[in-house]
What does this fold into?
Amino acid sequence: MSDLVVVDLKDAVAVYRTKDGRLHVDSSVQPTSTEQAEWGGFLGAILGGLLAAPFTAGGLEQFRGYGGTILRTTLPPREASRLQQVIGVEGATAAPSAAQQRANA
It folds into this structure.
């Protein structure tokens, strides 16, 4: 019995050494089409939105009472202060945002 297997490769890379020891790379790469890139961006945005949803619209409350101090953030100063109030200890202040740190440097 003979089994015939056909594999349809869109991209392939072969890496090997020649007889004189040099590394050789053969590749057949087909760039991503515009349509594929658009679908990838669309799906990435959907998944990113789903993952970020718990942290918006009151999602901060789930972190209340854990304590801690924000050491560095990319949040705007107002949001960083709000987050620090939710997670932090009374009287603690949020660390400067990355933009503020660059401006102070």
